[in-house]
Specification:
The chain is mainly alpha-helical. The chain has one domain. It is 68% helix and 0% strand. The chain is built from 20 helices and no strands. The longest helix is centred in the last third of the chain and has 31 residues.
């Protein structure tokens, strides 16, 4: 009798211990009032490696790079007529859409990281430390080279007044470059890096404090607010004087980052089911066609919310497909993924490399005008930039990125026995530098 009672008490104690362990693993014991999902509750598509997104980052970089090359060497310089010329002109003329793809990817990847880590005790300090390690070496390395290094080919930038240089050193270059687009043209890509850094500064605070539902409401409200802000008479008047304002000022161009964040929340919380892929494909297609129509009508700067919606739908679709489908396989191309790895350096230095290629390489190709000359002219600066990016990754970015292991998130409860693998974006983001 006593043995039977002892056995029943032991079984009951074991059951309670197992229940307690399950609660602790979900964080319910540590913070019972919290409505934030733990890392183990996230949808697998939000935490698994997605090679297609690396390839999409590489494709975005190539679009932007070719767009800038086309300013100096438009395709009609090589080809006089034909369907190839018309297609090339359209693609190169609108290659700037790669920037909006970058924004969506950054919003998606960074928000995914924040959702996985927002219960960490050292959430803010680790996130910002890792951002600095990822962004600062290339960002400030370029500024030092352009502004401070004696004997650099662009030494005349050293004569720019310090009070003007500060806009670049303090990540506010998008304000100045919007009003004076041609000023310090070799640093023109930095306006988009500035917008991303403003996003990194503020968005983690919202992710930390709000539930997923409130976070989605905030993102939708901010996107709607941006659209309304663009239509206010003072903004319209300023845009008529300086058209780039609506494209480069942070309050008027954060829709891509926010829609990418919305996609990350929807995927991470299992809001989007597998059968949503068809609807996402439809949404991306319709939005892309609408944006193409607006571009054809000459409404370039007003298309960014529609373009961002198309890109965010495509990114969410790729995340749910998780490697399946022809588009995922196409973007998972090894070369595109490698370009995606080096994309931050290639993007930040593209105007410097292009200026060098135009001055010292392309004039010595000695090829007759035609398709071969066009290919050589566009491929040369890209290959040169790719080589420099590989060197930067091997010698600077990669080793510095390795210090991120010293900044690990600490959670108030132990991780699961078989933790979900972290997304590749945590090691390679910024798309610019996400």
């Amino acid at each position: 009798m006593r043995d039977a009672r002892t056995a029943r008490m032991t079984q009951a104690l074991a059951a309670k211990s197992a229940a307690f362990a399950r609660l602790a693993s979900r964080g319910s014991i540590v913070n019972a009032s919290s409505t934030m999902p733990s890392r183990q509750q996230l949808h697998p598509a939000a935490t698994s490696h997605l090679p297609a997104l690396d390839g999409l980052r590489g494709l975005a970089l190539l679009l932007v790079f070719c767009h800038h090359i086309a300013y100096t060497y438009p395709p009609q310089y090589f080809l006089r007529h034909g369907t190839v010329l018309r297609v090339l002109r359209f693609v190169l003329l609108h290659g700037w859409v790669g920037v909006d793809i970058f924004f969506v990817l950054s919003g998606f990847l960074v928000t995914g990281i924040l959702l996985r880590s927002r219960q960490a005790e050292n959430y803010s300090s680790v996130f910002y430390a890792r951002r600095v390690l990822r962004i600062a070496p290339v960002y400030y390395g370029v500024l030092v080279f352009v502004f401070l290094v004696p004997g650099s080919p662009w030494l005349h930038y050293a004569h720019v007044p310090w009070h003007t240089q500060l806009w670049w050193w303090l990540s506010g270059s998008n304000v100045v470059s919007a009003l004076h687009p041609g000023y310090l043209a070799l640093l023109s890509p930095f306006w988009s890096l500035a917008i991303e850094e403003h996003f990194y500064l503020l968005w983690p605070l919202a992710v930390r404090r709000l539930t997923d539902r409130r976070l989605m409401q905030l993102a939708l409200g901010l996107v709607a607010g941006e659209v309304v802000l663009r239509m206010l008479p003072p903004v319209v008047a300023l845009t008529l004087q300086s058209p780039e304002v609506i494209y480069r000022w942070t309050p008027l161009h954060f829709d891509g980052l926010l829609l990418g964040s919305l996609a990350a929340i929807a995927v991470s919380t299992d809001l989007l089911k597998q059968n949503a892929i068809a609807w996402l494909r439809l949404c991306a297609t319709v939005a892309a066609l609408a944006a193409a129509g607006m571009l054809h009508a000459g409404l370039r700067f007003h298309t960014t919310p529609i373009l961002s919606l198309a890109a965010a739908s495509a990114v969410a679709m790729l995340a749910l497909q998780n490697g399946r489908g022809w588009l995922s396989r196409l973007l998972s191309n090894r070369l595109l993924r490698r370009v995606g790895r080096y994309s931050y350096f290639m993007y930040a230095t593209q105007t410097l490399v292009l200026a060098f290629a135009i001055a010292h390489v392309i004039p010595h190709l000695h090829l007759r005008r035609g398709a071969l000359m066009l290919l050589a002219t566009y491929a040369t600066p890209i290959l040169l930039s790719f080589a420099c990016g590989a060197i930067s990754w091997a010698a600077v970015e990669g080793p510095i990125n390795g210090f991120r292991r010293h900044f690990a998130y600490r959670f108030p409860h132990p991780p699961a026995a078989n933790p979900i693998p972290m997304h590749s974006g945590e090691a390679a983001t910024s798309t610019l530098a996400a």
